[in-house]
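User: Hello, can you help with two protein structures?

Assistant: Certainly.
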Amino acid sequence: MFKKWQKRSINQINMYAIFLAGVFAFAAAFIVIFNEYLDFNKEVAQIERSFIQNQKTQIIKKTKILEKLIRYNYESFHSNKEFESKLSQICKYILNDGEEKTNLFIFDNNKRTICNSKMQEFSLSIKDRIFEIANKGGGFLDIKYGNRKYMIYIKKINKLGLVYGGDISIDDFKQTIELKRIAYKNKIAGFVLKIFSLTLLLYIISIIKYRFYTKKLSKELKYIIDSFKVASMEYRPINLSKIEFFEFNQIALHANDMIYKIKNKNRALVLLNEDLGRLVEEKTEELRKSMEKKKELLVYQEKFVRNAIHEINTPLSIILINIELYNLKFEKNNYLANIEAAVKVLENIYGDLGYIVKKDRVVYEKNMINFSLFISNRIEYFQDVARGNDLVLKAEIDDNIFILFNEVQLQRLCDNSISNAIKYSFANEVINVKLYEDDNLFVLEVSNKGEKIKNADKLFEKFYREDKARGGFGLGLNIVKEICDTNDVKIIVVSEGNIITFKYFFSGVIS
């Protein structure tokens, strides 16, 4: 709604303002008329209450006179007929004061009418209600008789067995109300006429002002808009002498300042664009040459790594074969054992480098592997390395655990985990390697005693080393992480005190 309002023209806004002024004027008039109506209803209610109270007072007064005369004349008569005749005269006597709207009545205990001065005979149902109130001590009763409403005041003289009272019409106040209503209508009509006249006058004045100022506003706005169109192409400033309104003059003043700045900026941008064009061409050529050089270096680097790996593999293989041949012929030599341990460390590094070079070009197919036998062989392979570092490798391997995995990737995972535990373990400690089933998963667990891990989140990042003094390239655990992610193997690293544990969770089948 507000977005639509923001797009309105000045003409529309002025028309809305005039319309709202009229709405407010008529709303105010309605509120005043409504308040007058409420006051009128209060006055009517007050008149009605006063009228009814006056009627009650009048009928009670007449009834009290009737009671006094009944009691006074009761002892003077010897027969009921004479007494009843006298009571009828008494009723007429009391009412002989010009008040024709009051009626008096007397009934005996058998609900027989002794006198009823004006009204027709009461119906049996009305008599029953009259006697019911009389037996309760008396009071008032409202009834409708014919087309008129009456209020009855009822009393009873228990000693004489007489029920007496009077009734009076309560419709007569309607005439007074009707006069008030006519006066109210005349008052409201006059008020509405005044409001309408005032509103019409305000509308006429508003329209005259609206037409005058709108024409001037529209003229100046049109000039400013046309000037902006010209300025956008020619950077020509707005002529301030043609603008009368202060606000528009300020807008034009700022617009001229902006036009001047844009003109200068545009000139500077043109020059800068020319310089940038030349600079981009120069840098593009430099970047092209640099990229070609980097590609060439990468080719040489990859070729060097491949050749280096190939050249390292041959002497490593020769050394290991000769050590094995020597061990077969002679007793195990401590010096050769240390050499063999060092060569196996080199062979593990060689395996990592070879995997990094080949991993993006080789498809590693999965086969069913006896994990129990596989990890046992890898533990046996690293025994000499552990002894060379004054450590003991201890294995707890469950039998017949099989997993579907690639053998090269599994070797890299196991070798790097065991090698890492040997590298970062305290001397003269035991490294525990376990393989077991837990909740339908196979768990490989490698734990050692060493320094507490400081940055567990960075542990698997490439080239990151927790202890740089111990050497290494920082590639082993990164390779392990990539292999685990590829094969949906979950890794948990726990470092509590001096105990560091790596747990790997594999899915597989038991054979």
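That covers the first. Now for the second protein you mentioned:
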Amino acid sequence: LKAIGKTTDPSTVSPFFTGAISSSFRATYLQTRIDGIWRSTNKGSSWKSIGGPNMSYDNRMITAVDDNIVFTVDSFGSIWATYNSGGDPLTSPGAPGVYKFSAGKIINDTSGVTVYLPIYYHHTGTISSIDLTMHYPAGPLQYLGSLLTYGKSVDVLGTRWPGRAGLHFEADDLTAATDSLIAYAVFKWFPLEFDCANIYFDSLSSVVTASVCGEQFLQSGTPFKGIIGAYKWCGESAAVNSELHESLFTFAPNPVGESGIIRSALFAGTVTISVYDIIGKLINTQETYLSPTSPVTLSLGNIASGVYHCSIHTKNLPLYEFTVMHYAN
């Protein structure tokens, strides 16, 4: 055997309660400790906790399928599995009346294109800051970064590796945001025919300023997900709709050339349709009548190729939003 690394950070040396160590195929080393799973990306010179259950007993064995999927066997013979890098919760208590995020669904069959997955923000009260962790399948998706609608990055340095990234939203940006689109997670999309990729946003936490005496306390938010998929296997021919109103309106085709069709199987009434570019500038707007028997044509032939954000405003329903990928002929 040959020594390949020596821990140089005394704070990470003790107490380690395992005789087992594992490596993913990218040579990311993992081991269990009494306080969860620890990872090293520099051959053991330093270790960092990546979460996982706190144990009052020894985890004796560990193995890693890749950087995200980890299995351990404890001293009682029970098998533990994590599919998100070592213990980030995929469920949490939620924060009714404080804030909520959601994402959309994008259907695309073209390989190698840049896809902007929209992230929506809905809030009441005052949020000082919000952190969340994003998990995605690194096979069909190559992560390029996440940014607010006006271009500011929300990525956290040191938290990104294939399949996972940490995001941080500043208080000023959250306070300025309306109950609407706030950011994009940007990917290169390399779909196979059977791809329907789920992007999970979890481990939401924030610092909330209470109205009484300005006291601050930690608050957990509700996890959410987005989807980037290929037509045949995701069962959609168009971009969808945010999670809030998944079946109210549809738009097809997407990507779109000169024009696309907005339909609704349930709604009948006057709608205002607005189109914005990626930095939030209004491109055009129209007011028209929409019903199950009267679809609406959305014309995009007079604008440049790119990703656009569209909204549908009705008198009695919440704002409905979706993302369009437009190519000029």
